[in-house]
Amino acid sequence: MVVVIGKSGIGPWQREEVQVALDNAVNLQRPVISVLLAGAPPPNRLDAFLKNRTWVDFQNGYSEEGIDRLVWGIKGQKPGDVRQSDDSQTRASTRWILVAGSGTRKVPGNIKAVSRRLGEALAETGFSLVTGGWNGVDAYVAEAFAERIRDRDQSLSGRLVQVMQKGKRPHFRAGRLDGGGSEEEAWKRSIERADAVVLVGGVGGTHQTGEFAKQIQKFVFPLADTRDSEGDHSDAYEFYFASLDNWDTNPLSQCLRNYDFLSLGNPASWVVLDLMQLLKRVLLAKQ
Fold first, then answer.
1. pTM for the model
2. Does residue 198 share a domain with residue 108?
3. Largest separation between any pair of C-alpha atoms in the chain
4. Any idea what the CATH number is for the domain that residue 156 is in?
5. Is 85 a domain residue?
């Protein structure tokens, strides 16, 4: 049983429900875990029963350690055993993909659909995900990615990293937070830690992400068919054609033919499948 406690603590109505649940948990010999959110009372101010239970502290923000403690507490597995196994497997088998795209609160339906398919496919193919923690594409791809990883009963903190400036929190709160520095420093750090960058839609900043990634010799995969019906959100589209026009200076020209890259211009409904094939050819062959 997990008891989540926020800024207001436990209200009178919830207190009665919690007490019944606690009684049932004791009778059934189930573990009880207190989860403290931002603003929650300190453990020594909780009810006598709760303060002596295993508790996870998110009062200063979500952390890899806290999330792992919660997951491991529910599963009943020791943190040391799981972390050693998961981390060694992750280091040996995965490559990190940064997905950058439209960061607006509302994005066109086609971009949302592609983002979700992309998140699912990256998880299923064995890649790990880096995002900038923004709204829009970042949130949609991270959410879909997290759902697939959890379905497979794997550690999300070893597969999803969200890189943000100091004091910021991602819109979709999951995985591991890499927070620190200014917004520009966090932006560069997210690109530097990725093995490849995928561009989806975009309204200006996405194109800049592709340019900086190319400058530091990262592989950039723009999904061209992610503009909206009016031609907006066109960063990935424009970067795609600019890459073709300057193919000889593209880091991908070292390992792909121009013809292979053309597949990134395929319709959004199936381009994610083409992308996965290219990512595996370019990145997994290096292992």
1. 0.69
2. yes
3. 70
4. 3.40.50.450
5. no
Mean pLDDT by 10 residues, the chain (287 residues): 69 60 61 72 61 62 69 56 37 78 88 95 94 94 93 85 90 88 94 97 94 97 93 95 95 93 92 94 77
CB atoms within 10 A of CB 261: 19
Q: Which of 139, 157, 97, 103 is nearest to 122 (CA)?
A: 97
Reported as half-sphere exposure (CB side, CA atoms, 13 A), residue 246 has a value of: 10
Q: SS3 letters for 78-138?
A: CHHHHHHHHHHHHHHHCCEEEEEECCCCCCCHHHHHHHHHHHHHHHHHCCEEEECCCCCHH
Report which secondary-structure segment, H or E, holds 219: strand 219-223
φ, ψ for residue 167, nearest 5 deg: 85, -5
| Phi/psi at 53 (5° precision) | -90, 165
Strand-strand pairing, 196-200 and 219-223: parallel
